[in-house]
Each structure stands twice: as structure tokens, then as C-alpha cells.
Amino acid sequence: MKNFNEIYQKIYEENHTYIHNLRQKNIVRSTLITLIFIILSIPTAIHFSLLIALTFDIVIAIVIFLNPFFNDYNKKYKSTIITSLVKNYDNNLRYNPTGMISKIHYDNADFEPYTEYNANDYVSGLIDGEIDFHMGDIHTTYVTENENGTHNRTTIFKGLFSASQLNKTITDIIKIRLDSKLLNKELSNPDKLNMDSQEFEKYFNVFSKDKILAMRILTSDIIDFILTFKKENNIKFEITIKRNMLYIRIHCKNIFETNVFKNPLDFNTLHKYFKYLDFMCTLNKKLNRVLNEKDL
Question: For the chain, where are the E strands, in sequence order?
Fold first, then answer.
């Protein structure tokens, strides 16, 4: 596992002066713009309503200071801090904030149906110069239309998704899904495996038609690695192993975003991003090691 402390030190040294100067400039600019709107609202407060004026000022301040897309500060944060994080993790990976991981990859992973697909924050390249890897921020929604023609959008998934190539092709699909004891249909599924680890089954259900193959691939080391990541980070994630591909999705809020109130070099935030990326890459390498050792 790569040492995050060393990576963080490099990120800090490469970007500290630039990003903090940029942050200060944006704070000053945002403050001035907010003051202008406050001044413009004074006639409203005098002639109509102080409450309306205050509400207007508060909304404007929130939009200016908290909306990461109000100015180019968020773009500069991505192009410096996130690019540096990805590069220092593995110099063979590249980060494109406006790029999109392919919808085809996501559809191949056999998750829930959806009607709208949006993506950005695309990471791609070769892990260790060898393993084809793709990762991105994804938001899928399901759109329904009522009798009045109004469209309702329900979020199906929001978070990180990765697709990486394995060095062998398996003949079955292995799905590791979040445990949902209330879904009787899922529990009665004949493809559900009984795992050797009761602790693992507290969090996940595993499905595969070829139970012997699945158990040979999901070794105790793989299971322990997945379980440790789950317990240490307390997040929801799911995995699909299909043919010669590994798919992972992590449920989380929009990542790689910032605003002027946030410390752009916050250690814990960058460490979280690092752990997500490292889990996806390391699990692929561990599975490839198992596949190389097995005669499948």
C-alpha cells in the first residue's frame, strides 16, 4: 500500500502557496460581490421589508460562498490538488475533471435500472503501468411521469464507480451486494452463497451460479480486505466480477469538490479520496494475484 503521508507531503509542497493564494483572492472577491448585493438590497429593506432583504442577502451569500461552481476556484482546485493526488498515487493514471467514465462500463456491472446517467471526474490509465483502469463520479436517476405530465426524478446511485480489467476471464458473474435482510426475494435467491465468514455476511450477500468458482476466487484474504475497508470507513459499496472485469461502486456524496470555506489541503478529506482510489486499485491487484494462482 502506498504511503499517504508521503503523498500528502508532495501535494502540500507542490500546491500550498498557489492554492491558498487563490483561495484568499476568491474570498475577497466573493465578499465584495456579496457586499454589492447587500447595498443593492437596502432600498428593498427601507421601502418594503427588512425580512425580504435579509433573506435575499443570505441566499446570495450562500450561492457565492458555498456553490463550488460560482467561479473557477473549484476548477483550479481540481486541476491542481486532485490532479496531484492521482499523479502521486500512480504516475500512470490521469485525471480529467470534465471527462466521463463510459456508460457502457456501468451498464455491464449489472446494477439497478435507471433512465438518466451523468458523470464527471474521470480517472483513467494503467495501474502500475499494466492494468487498464477507469474511475469516475456517477449520478444515475430514474425518471417517472405522472398523469399531469410532470417528471419526477429519483436518485438511484450517487458516488464513485470503477471498472478495471482482470488478467483472466471467468465463466460466471460474482456479485457482492449490500446485505438487505428485508428483501425476501433476494434471500431466497438460489444463487446466494453461504460464506465462511459470518462477519462478512452481516454486511454483504454474495451471488453466483458457480458456487465453487466464487469460493475459489473469494479467498479469505480477499474477504478480509473487503471487510476491513467496510468497517474502517463505514460506507456502502458493492462489487461485480464479470468475465475479465472488476466493477466497484462506492456510495458517497460528490467528491473532488470544494469551496472557499474549505481548507483545500485538508488532510482527512484527501486521505478519504486516497483510500477510495487505493481500495479499487488494490482489490484489482489482489484478485489478479488469486487468478494467476488458480487453474480456472
Answer: 93-96, 116-127, 131-145, 151-165, 173-178, 204-207, 237-242, 245-251
